[in-house]
Specification:
The chain has 359 residues and is an alpha/beta fold. The chain has 2 domains: 142 residues, Nucleotidyltransferase, domain 5 (2-Layer Sandwich), CATH 3.30.420.40; 172 residues, 2-Layer Sandwich (Nucleotidyltransferase, domain 5). Helices cover 40% and strands 19% of the residues. It has 10 helices and 11 strands. The protein is globular. The two termini are 21 Å apart.
Length: 359
């Protein structure tokens, strides 16, 4: 079975082709075209610009994915496209492109939840290293506790079986990735903020500044990063890092310490709540995913704490941490294989606030 995946939920235009033989998954291609350079001057994603770029890039990205996979549309068995959540104007570009392909080639089409795609990115192996991978993990993983951390979402999702989800916690304001971007903007570092903050933090002292750990001790599993972001803003005003006329080395050291302290506060909350939930719900595994899952300190810390509980731990390969069409294609395959899908063309629509739900 060959599945074509299409992803346009935010500012990455992506197309991928997966080959599935029972539980053997082979990624034939996974093309991702980023728009970072276009949005960087604005300090964040501009929806109208993102949609414009998707419109321009979808065809060449699709053609490249098909070429790398050495296949043609006549051989494709299923098209899977991100239906939500995401930027509505961007989602529609991918949905309409997929609908046109499905109609032209008379192929079945399925809409996929972007966050479910992130969860299943844990089943994708590095293209260059392992082209054939078992869809099922070798160890018992259910119930699996998923920590999804991205620019738009921060959620704890308990997965009792494939396609069986329960959201047990989520952010009540800013997502973790959004907080990274906003703090980087306050510090005049640029966009996207996550990698820039992490790079600065490598040489900083995470204990230098005492930032709050929002909602850390509350009994629920929700997150909040707005207050932490505000604490950084107040500190910036107090020490005047942005417009400081002091020696550059001194300014850089302050920024490094601030980045390290902020990053540590975010990770402390994410890891503590995840581990606490894993204990309460007797999880068999902890799975990390989403754009912020590329953060090395988060990966190392969560893996270390998971091992203390003797839980199976998984994180996606770096190339699958961000938005990509391979993860969308994989969810499409599994839903169809288990007959848990609604194949449609005419009624498929973009759903910017789409929630994770059971298949």
């Amino acid at each position: 079975m060959l599945i074509l995946g299409i992803e346009t939920s935010c500012d990455e235009t992506s197309a991928a082709v997966l080959e599935a033989k029972t539980d053997k998954i082979k990624v034939l291609s996974n093309v991702v075209l980023s728009q970072i350079k276009i949005h960087s001057p604005f300090g964040g994603v501009v929806p109208s610009l993102a949609a414009r770029e998707h419109e321009k890039n979808l065809s060449p990205v699709f053609e490249k994915a098909m070429s790398e996979a050495k296949t043609e549309m006549a051989e494709i068995d299923l098209i899977a496209v991100t239906a939500g959540p995401g930027l509505e104007i961007a989602l529609w570009k991918g949905v309409n492109f997929a609908k046109n392909l499905a109609g032209l080639w008379k192929k079945p089409l399925i809409g996929i939840n972007h966050l479910e795609g992130h969860i299943y990115s844990n089943w994708l192996k590095p293209i260059a290293e392992i082209k054939n991978s078992n869809f099922k993990f070798s160890k018992k993983i259910f119930p699996a506790l998923n920590l999804i951390v991205s620019g738009g979402h921060t959620q704890l999702v308990l997965m009792s079986a494939h396609g069986k989800f329960k959201i047990i916690g989520e952010t009540v304001d800013d997502a973790a990735g959004e907080a990274f971007d906003k703090v980087a903007r306050m510090m005049n570092l640029g966009y996207p903020g996550g990698p820039l903050i992490s790079k600065l933090a490598e040489k900083g002292n995470p204990k230098k500044f005492s930032f709050p750990r929002p909602m850390l001790n509350q009994k629920n599993y929700n997150f909040s990063f707005s207050g932490l972001k505000t604490a950084v803003l107040y500190l910036l005003k107090e020490i005047d890092v942005i417009t400081s006329d002091s020696i550059l080395k001194r300014k850089l050291k302050i920024q490094q310490d601030m980045a390290a302290s902020f990053q540590q506060a975010v990770i402390d909350v994410l890891v503590a709540k995840t581990i606490k939930a894993a204990k309460e719900f007797k999880a068999g595994s902890i799975l990390l995913s989403g754009g912020v899952s590329a953060n090395k300190l988060l990966r190392e810390t969560l893996e270390k704490e998971s091992k203390k509980l003797k839980l199976f731990y998984s994180q996606p390969d770096f190339q699958y941490t961000g938005d990509n069409a391979a993860m969308i294609a994989l969810v499409g395959y599994y839903k169809v294989r288990n007959k848990k899908s609604e194949l449609r063309i005419k009624n498929l629509k973009a759903e910017p606030n789409l929630r994770i739900k059971n298949w």
